[in-house]
Amino acid sequence: MEGKIFDIKRFALNDGPGIRTTIFLKGCPLKCIWCHNPEGISFDIDEYEEERVLDGLRFTSKQSVGKMVSVDMLMKEIKKDQQFFIQSGGGVTFSGGEPLAQYDFLFQMVQLCKQNDLHITIDTSGLCSINQISKIAELTDLFLFDIKFVDDDLHLKYTGVSNKLILQNLEYILKSKTNVIIRIPVIPGINDSNKCIAELKLYLDNLKNDIKELHFLPFHNSGISKYNRFNKEYEMRNAKSQQSTDLLSLKEEFTLLGITTKIGGL
């Protein structure tokens, strides 16, 4: 079995507990206009021209984003960091793109990681079939589960897909007692309106007893350089990055619901 990845990040500290190796799987069915990993959206291996200056000479070189890897090949890379996992209580995080979009490959990787006693975190938008989420949940130690909107029309407008199946999957894994940290990317002018926040509060209030934690993620526009490099249009180019202090009132508001709430993640 082979899968397509576009990056491996070692010694990651914000993608689950402990020191982690994060595997970024290529391809995502969502097209969020604020995505800060535009190179992970396409399922294809992308090529682009990169301009460089060396010794005063300007030249371009062709670069590619994405590569095929086998399950065994990727497992060998993960095992290089196993001692750090043991010492820190860390493990492997599968991110993207959307890791569940390459379900068969992901499932084999998760099975192999579990056989090697590795802690498994899946960073996901939650878009897959109920059957797939139920099987993967049985082997997963922690989900980092994004919610962009509760309102389906807004979700469709800004991500290109409905959120009905996403919310069904969230409710399923919460009821199955899987550890879930819900993450809300706060996008200025998009999902931070009073209406959006009120809908989110009402929705999460009904699920709060099963939620491990809630994390609000400040928007940052550091992805601009990637959009420039890959010659992609970025609709959020003029939006200002947020500071953690900008979200303190949100943290307080949701903490009052009885949900452990943080800013900026792990």
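the 2nd protein, sequnce then structure:
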Amino acid sequence: MSEAWKHLDLQGGGVQSANLLLLKLIKRRRIAYLLWLIFPLGLHRTYLDHARGAWGYRLASLAALTALLAPWQWLAPVLLAGMAAFACHDLYWIDRRVTILNKQLRMQVYLRHGDAMAPSFAGRHAQGGEAPPDRAPSFAKQEALLRELARRNDARNQEHKPGET
């Protein structure tokens, strides 16, 4: 399928504009895993909207760096091992998190409340079963009209049979 639709925004409230919005918001596993490669900065958690976890990585990195420069150098390997364990857990966590976030984003985009109805909108059927004047009659009404026309034609044909005077 052509990718041209991604560059054409009709500025409407339809499916095309919803798809464009979703395309901008959706989270991608590849980006999350690439950001995971620099896990001490916690950018993969920030990308996946988990600020508390991101700050946890950053604070642990800062604490490990501080421990290396301070007299408690024995604490740095402990902090780094803990971060590595959490980073290994994040390899599993990223896939689930992307799935959950993308599902939420789809629901937000496709189920969002659009523009209000036009003031002249009277619903699918007007009061009393009659169609508004600017609309075609319902199928049931059309069928009744066709039956009436057929009955009239039959009656007319009975009156004017060929060969009779």
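The helical segments are 15-25, 29-36, 43-47, 51-69, 75-110, 139-159. The longest helix spans residues 75-110.
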